[in-house]
Amino acid sequence: MVHNTDAPVAVAVNGTLASERALDWAAHDARLRDRGLRVVYAFDWPMYHARPRGLPEFDVDAFARRVVEGARRRALRQVPDLLVEAVHITADRGATLLRESQKAHSLVLGAHRMTAMDAVLPESTALEVIVSASCPVVVVPDREPGPSTGRVLVGVDGSATSQAAVAWAFATADVRGAVLRAMTVRKGLLRERFGRPEKPSRAGARAGEAEEAKEAAAVEEARRRLSGWIADERARRPDVRVEEVVETGHPVEALCNAAEACDLMVVGSHGRGGFAGMLLGSVSRNVISHSPCPVTVVRAPRP
Protein backbone atom coordinates (compact mmCIF):
# COMPACT_ATOMS: atom_id res chain seq x y z
CA MET A 1 0.00 0.00 0.00
CA VAL A 2 1.07 3.59 -0.69
CA HIS A 3 2.22 5.46 2.43
CA ASN A 4 3.32 8.69 0.69
CA THR A 5 1.38 11.52 2.31
CA ASP A 6 1.49 13.42 -1.00
CA ALA A 7 0.09 10.58 -3.11
CA PRO A 8 -3.00 11.70 -5.04
CA VAL A 9 -6.38 10.09 -5.33
CA ALA A 10 -6.41 8.62 -8.86
CA VAL A 11 -9.54 8.13 -10.93
CA ALA A 12 -10.01 6.33 -14.23
CA VAL A 13 -12.20 8.14 -16.77
CA ASN A 14 -13.45 7.41 -20.27
CA GLY A 15 -16.13 10.01 -20.92
CA THR A 16 -19.09 7.84 -19.87
CA LEU A 17 -21.69 8.73 -17.24
CA ALA A 18 -20.37 5.93 -15.03
CA SER A 19 -16.88 7.41 -15.06
CA GLU A 20 -18.28 10.90 -14.39
CA ARG A 21 -19.94 9.58 -11.22
CA ALA A 22 -16.59 8.08 -10.21
CA LEU A 23 -14.84 11.38 -11.00
CA ASP A 24 -17.28 13.39 -8.86
CA TRP A 25 -16.81 11.00 -5.94
CA ALA A 26 -13.02 11.04 -6.29
CA ALA A 27 -12.86 14.85 -6.40
CA HIS A 28 -14.79 15.20 -3.16
CA ASP A 29 -12.78 12.42 -1.51
CA ALA A 30 -9.50 14.10 -2.51
CA ARG A 31 -10.73 17.35 -0.95
CA LEU A 32 -11.67 15.61 2.31
CA ARG A 33 -8.24 13.96 2.46
CA ASP A 34 -6.41 17.17 1.47
CA ARG A 35 -4.84 15.44 -1.52
CA GLY A 36 -4.56 16.15 -5.20
CA LEU A 37 -6.56 14.36 -7.89
CA ARG A 38 -4.96 12.52 -10.80
CA VAL A 39 -7.35 11.91 -13.69
CA VAL A 40 -6.27 9.07 -15.97
CA TYR A 41 -7.66 8.07 -19.35
CA ALA A 42 -6.06 4.89 -20.64
CA PHE A 43 -6.90 4.45 -24.32
CA ASP A 44 -6.10 1.05 -25.80
CA TRP A 45 -6.56 1.04 -29.58
CA PRO A 46 -4.73 -1.48 -31.80
CA MET A 47 -2.68 0.28 -34.45
CA TYR A 48 -3.63 3.56 -32.82
CA HIS A 49 -1.53 5.61 -35.23
CA ALA A 50 -3.81 4.55 -38.08
CA ARG A 51 -7.18 6.17 -38.67
CA PRO A 52 -10.17 3.88 -38.01
CA ARG A 53 -11.98 2.77 -41.13
CA GLY A 54 -15.08 4.90 -41.73
CA LEU A 55 -13.81 7.73 -39.52
CA PRO A 56 -11.27 9.52 -41.72
CA GLU A 57 -11.24 12.67 -39.58
CA PHE A 58 -10.91 10.81 -36.27
CA ASP A 59 -7.83 11.75 -34.25
CA VAL A 60 -7.09 9.49 -31.29
CA ASP A 61 -4.92 11.98 -29.44
CA ALA A 62 -7.40 14.82 -29.92
CA PHE A 63 -10.23 12.61 -28.65
CA ALA A 64 -8.20 11.61 -25.58
CA ARG A 65 -7.33 15.24 -24.87
CA ARG A 66 -11.03 16.15 -24.98
CA VAL A 67 -11.86 13.37 -22.52
CA VAL A 68 -9.25 14.33 -19.94
CA GLU A 69 -9.76 18.08 -20.33
CA GLY A 70 -13.50 17.65 -19.90
CA ALA A 71 -12.85 15.54 -16.80
CA ARG A 72 -10.45 18.12 -15.40
CA ARG A 73 -12.97 20.92 -15.84
CA ARG A 74 -15.73 18.83 -14.28
CA ALA A 75 -13.56 18.05 -11.23
CA LEU A 76 -12.82 21.73 -10.74
CA ARG A 77 -16.52 22.58 -10.96
CA GLN A 78 -17.09 20.08 -8.18
CA VAL A 79 -14.15 21.28 -6.05
CA PRO A 80 -12.87 24.65 -7.35
CA ASP A 81 -9.56 24.78 -5.43
CA LEU A 82 -8.58 21.17 -6.04
CA LEU A 83 -5.14 20.40 -7.47
CA VAL A 84 -5.98 18.33 -10.58
CA GLU A 85 -3.59 16.58 -12.93
CA ALA A 86 -5.16 15.02 -16.04
CA VAL A 87 -3.28 12.63 -18.32
CA HIS A 88 -4.11 10.36 -21.24
CA ILE A 89 -2.02 7.29 -21.93
CA THR A 90 -2.25 5.14 -25.04
CA ALA A 91 -1.53 1.69 -23.64
CA ASP A 92 -3.18 -1.37 -22.19
CA ARG A 93 -5.80 -0.12 -19.75
CA GLY A 94 -5.28 -2.75 -17.06
CA ALA A 95 -1.51 -2.44 -17.03
CA THR A 96 -1.75 1.35 -17.02
CA LEU A 97 -4.10 1.46 -14.03
CA LEU A 98 -1.95 -1.02 -12.11
CA ARG A 99 1.07 1.24 -12.66
CA GLU A 100 -0.99 4.23 -11.54
CA SER A 101 -1.97 2.37 -8.37
CA GLN A 102 1.71 2.14 -7.39
CA LYS A 103 1.88 5.89 -6.86
CA ALA A 104 -1.69 6.63 -5.76
CA HIS A 105 -3.30 6.89 -2.35
CA SER A 106 -6.35 5.15 -3.80
CA LEU A 107 -7.75 4.36 -7.23
CA VAL A 108 -11.39 5.12 -8.09
CA LEU A 109 -13.27 3.23 -10.80
CA GLY A 110 -16.80 3.50 -12.13
CA ALA A 111 -19.00 0.42 -12.53
CA HIS A 112 -21.73 0.01 -15.13
CA ARG A 113 -25.32 -0.74 -14.21
CA MET A 114 -26.85 -4.08 -15.17
CA THR A 115 -30.45 -2.93 -15.51
CA ALA A 116 -32.01 -6.40 -15.54
CA MET A 117 -30.82 -7.03 -11.98
CA ASP A 118 -30.37 -3.44 -10.84
CA ALA A 119 -26.80 -4.39 -10.09
CA VAL A 120 -23.44 -3.04 -11.15
CA LEU A 121 -20.49 -5.09 -12.25
CA PRO A 122 -16.92 -4.11 -13.03
CA GLU A 123 -15.65 -5.48 -16.33
CA SER A 124 -12.83 -8.05 -16.39
CA THR A 125 -10.11 -5.38 -16.57
CA ALA A 126 -11.53 -3.65 -13.51
CA LEU A 127 -11.66 -6.95 -11.60
CA GLU A 128 -7.99 -7.51 -12.43
CA VAL A 129 -7.16 -4.04 -11.14
CA ILE A 130 -9.17 -4.51 -7.95
CA VAL A 131 -7.36 -7.75 -7.16
CA SER A 132 -3.82 -6.67 -8.08
CA ALA A 133 -3.68 -2.92 -7.37
CA SER A 134 -1.01 -1.60 -5.02
CA CYS A 135 -3.49 0.70 -3.29
CA PRO A 136 -7.12 0.41 -2.16
CA VAL A 137 -9.63 0.54 -5.01
CA VAL A 138 -12.98 2.30 -4.78
CA VAL A 139 -15.80 1.13 -7.07
CA VAL A 140 -18.52 3.75 -7.54
CA PRO A 141 -21.88 2.38 -8.71
CA ASP A 142 -23.58 3.92 -11.72
CA ARG A 143 -26.47 5.24 -9.65
CA GLU A 144 -27.58 8.72 -8.70
CA PRO A 145 -25.98 9.35 -5.28
CA GLY A 146 -28.35 10.01 -2.42
CA PRO A 147 -27.93 12.51 0.42
CA SER A 148 -24.99 11.94 2.74
CA THR A 149 -25.71 9.81 5.80
CA GLY A 150 -22.47 10.52 7.66
CA ARG A 151 -21.69 6.81 8.08
CA VAL A 152 -18.95 4.49 6.84
CA LEU A 153 -19.57 0.73 6.93
CA VAL A 154 -16.85 -1.90 7.30
CA GLY A 155 -17.25 -5.66 7.13
CA VAL A 156 -15.25 -7.42 9.85
CA ASP A 157 -14.40 -11.13 10.16
CA GLY A 158 -11.07 -11.15 11.99
CA SER A 159 -8.92 -12.09 8.96
CA ALA A 160 -5.77 -10.19 7.99
CA THR A 161 -7.55 -8.59 5.04
CA SER A 162 -10.42 -7.62 7.32
CA GLN A 163 -7.97 -5.94 9.70
CA ALA A 164 -6.55 -3.93 6.80
CA ALA A 165 -10.10 -2.90 5.87
CA VAL A 166 -10.79 -1.90 9.49
CA ALA A 167 -7.71 0.35 9.57
CA TRP A 168 -8.72 1.99 6.29
CA ALA A 169 -12.31 2.44 7.44
CA PHE A 170 -11.29 4.08 10.72
CA ALA A 171 -8.99 6.50 8.88
CA THR A 172 -11.73 7.30 6.38
CA ALA A 173 -14.36 7.87 9.05
CA ASP A 174 -11.88 10.12 10.84
CA VAL A 175 -11.23 12.41 7.85
CA ARG A 176 -14.93 12.50 6.99
CA GLY A 177 -16.09 13.13 10.54
CA ALA A 178 -18.37 10.14 10.02
CA VAL A 179 -19.74 7.44 12.29
CA LEU A 180 -18.12 4.06 11.65
CA ARG A 181 -20.49 1.10 11.54
CA ALA A 182 -18.41 -2.05 12.15
CA MET A 183 -20.40 -5.14 11.19
CA THR A 184 -19.80 -8.84 11.49
CA VAL A 185 -22.23 -11.33 9.99
CA ARG A 186 -22.76 -14.82 11.30
CA LYS A 187 -24.74 -17.63 9.75
CA GLY A 188 -27.93 -18.42 11.62
CA LEU A 189 -29.39 -21.81 12.43
CA LEU A 190 -31.77 -23.27 9.89
CA ARG A 191 -35.16 -23.29 11.53
CA GLU A 192 -38.58 -24.61 10.63
CA ARG A 193 -37.33 -26.07 7.38
CA PHE A 194 -40.45 -28.20 7.09
CA GLY A 195 -42.79 -25.91 9.02
CA ARG A 196 -43.91 -25.86 12.65
CA PRO A 197 -46.38 -28.37 14.06
CA GLU A 198 -49.73 -26.77 14.84
CA LYS A 199 -49.48 -27.62 18.56
CA PRO A 200 -45.87 -27.96 19.65
CA SER A 201 -45.25 -30.43 22.45
CA ARG A 202 -43.71 -29.46 25.75
CA ALA A 203 -40.52 -31.21 24.67
CA GLY A 204 -40.56 -29.26 21.44
CA ALA A 205 -41.10 -26.00 23.34
CA ARG A 206 -38.19 -26.76 25.64
CA ALA A 207 -36.01 -27.59 22.64
CA GLY A 208 -37.01 -24.30 21.03
CA GLU A 209 -36.11 -22.38 24.17
CA ALA A 210 -32.75 -24.14 24.33
CA GLU A 211 -32.12 -23.27 20.69
CA GLU A 212 -32.97 -19.62 21.30
CA ALA A 213 -30.62 -19.53 24.28
CA LYS A 214 -27.88 -21.07 22.16
CA GLU A 215 -28.50 -18.52 19.43
CA ALA A 216 -28.37 -15.63 21.90
CA ALA A 217 -25.08 -16.94 23.31
CA ALA A 218 -23.63 -17.22 19.79
CA VAL A 219 -24.63 -13.63 18.99
CA GLU A 220 -23.05 -12.42 22.22
CA GLU A 221 -19.85 -14.29 21.41
CA ALA A 222 -19.81 -12.72 17.92
CA ARG A 223 -20.25 -9.31 19.53
CA ARG A 224 -17.32 -9.99 21.87
CA ARG A 225 -15.09 -11.05 18.96
CA LEU A 226 -16.09 -7.98 16.94
CA SER A 227 -15.10 -5.68 19.80
CA GLY A 228 -11.73 -7.42 20.00
CA TRP A 229 -11.10 -7.22 16.25
CA ILE A 230 -11.53 -3.43 16.17
CA ALA A 231 -10.03 -2.64 19.59
CA ASP A 232 -6.58 -1.57 18.36
CA GLU A 233 -7.89 0.85 15.74
CA ARG A 234 -10.46 2.17 18.17
CA ALA A 235 -7.64 2.97 20.60
CA ARG A 236 -5.65 4.68 17.83
CA ARG A 237 -8.57 6.86 16.79
CA PRO A 238 -10.63 7.50 19.93
CA ASP A 239 -12.50 10.41 18.32
CA VAL A 240 -14.23 8.15 15.79
CA ARG A 241 -17.73 7.23 16.90
CA VAL A 242 -18.32 3.50 16.38
CA GLU A 243 -21.47 1.40 16.05
CA GLU A 244 -20.80 -2.31 16.60
CA VAL A 245 -23.35 -4.45 14.77
CA VAL A 246 -23.81 -8.23 14.69
CA GLU A 247 -26.14 -9.54 12.00
CA THR A 248 -27.30 -13.07 11.32
CA GLY A 249 -27.80 -14.23 7.74
CA HIS A 250 -26.06 -14.01 4.40
CA PRO A 251 -23.03 -11.64 4.51
CA VAL A 252 -23.73 -9.99 1.13
CA GLU A 253 -27.38 -9.35 1.92
CA ALA A 254 -26.62 -8.04 5.40
CA LEU A 255 -23.83 -5.73 4.24
CA CYS A 256 -25.78 -4.35 1.29
CA ASN A 257 -28.84 -3.74 3.44
CA ALA A 258 -26.70 -1.86 5.95
CA ALA A 259 -25.07 0.11 3.12
CA GLU A 260 -28.43 1.74 2.36
CA ALA A 261 -27.76 4.00 5.35
CA CYS A 262 -24.05 4.57 4.64
CA ASP A 263 -21.91 6.71 2.33
CA LEU A 264 -19.20 4.10 1.81
CA MET A 265 -18.62 0.39 2.42
CA VAL A 266 -15.13 -1.01 3.10
CA VAL A 267 -14.28 -4.68 2.61
CA GLY A 268 -11.10 -6.75 2.46
CA SER A 269 -9.81 -8.90 -0.38
CA HIS A 270 -7.10 -11.56 -0.62
CA GLY A 271 -5.87 -10.83 -4.16
CA ARG A 272 -3.15 -13.42 -4.69
CA GLY A 273 -3.28 -13.44 -8.51
CA GLY A 274 -4.81 -15.99 -10.87
CA PHE A 275 -8.51 -15.77 -11.67
CA ALA A 276 -9.43 -12.31 -10.46
CA GLY A 277 -13.12 -12.91 -9.96
CA MET A 278 -12.46 -15.99 -7.81
CA LEU A 279 -9.67 -14.54 -5.73
CA LEU A 280 -11.52 -11.32 -5.04
CA GLY A 281 -13.81 -13.50 -2.95
CA SER A 282 -17.51 -14.12 -3.36
CA VAL A 283 -18.53 -11.65 -0.63
CA SER A 284 -16.35 -8.80 -1.92
CA ARG A 285 -17.32 -9.47 -5.53
CA ASN A 286 -21.03 -9.55 -4.76
CA VAL A 287 -21.13 -6.51 -2.51
CA ILE A 288 -19.47 -4.57 -5.32
CA SER A 289 -22.23 -5.75 -7.65
CA HIS A 290 -25.13 -4.98 -5.31
CA SER A 291 -24.05 -2.24 -2.92
CA PRO A 292 -26.12 0.97 -3.16
CA CYS A 293 -23.06 3.01 -2.16
CA PRO A 294 -19.40 3.05 -3.26
CA VAL A 295 -17.25 0.14 -2.06
CA THR A 296 -13.58 0.33 -1.13
CA VAL A 297 -11.67 -2.94 -1.54
CA VAL A 298 -8.56 -3.14 0.66
CA ARG A 299 -5.90 -5.85 0.56
CA ALA A 300 -3.71 -6.88 3.46
CA PRO A 301 -0.12 -5.61 3.06
CA ARG A 302 2.16 -8.04 1.24
CA PRO A 303 4.60 -9.81 3.59
The percentage of residues in β strands lies in: 15-25%
Largest sheet: 10 strands, mixed
Q: Assembly state here?
A: single chain
Q: For the CA atoms, what is the radius of gyration?
A: 22 Å
Helix content: 40-55%
Uncertain segments: 114-120, 190-197, 271-279
> Gap between N and C termini, in Å?
11 Å
SSE sequence, one letter per element:
EHEHEHEEEHEEHEHHEHEHHE
CATH architecture of the largest domain: 3-Layer(aba) Sandwich
Mean pLDDT, nearest integer? Answer: 84
Entry keywords:
alpha/beta; Rossmann fold; 2 domains; 10-stranded mixed sheet; 10 helices
Describe this entry's structure for a reader:
The chain has helices at 17-33, 60-78, 93-101, 124-132, 160-176, 202-229, 231-236, 251-259, 276-279, 282-290, and strands at 9-12, 37-42, 84-89, 106-110, 112-114, 119-121, 137-140, 151-155, 179-186, 242-248, 264-269, 295-299. Mean pLDDT is 84; it is low at 114-120, 190-197 and 271-279. The strands form two sheets. A ten-stranded mixed beta sheet has the order 3-2-1-4-7-12-11-8-9-10, with helices on both faces. It has a two-stranded antiparallel sheet with strand order 5-6. It has two domains: 1-145, Rossmann fold (3-Layer(aba) Sandwich); 146-303, Rossmann fold. Helix 3 (93-101) runs parallel beside helix 4 (124-132). With 303 residues, it is of the alpha/beta class.
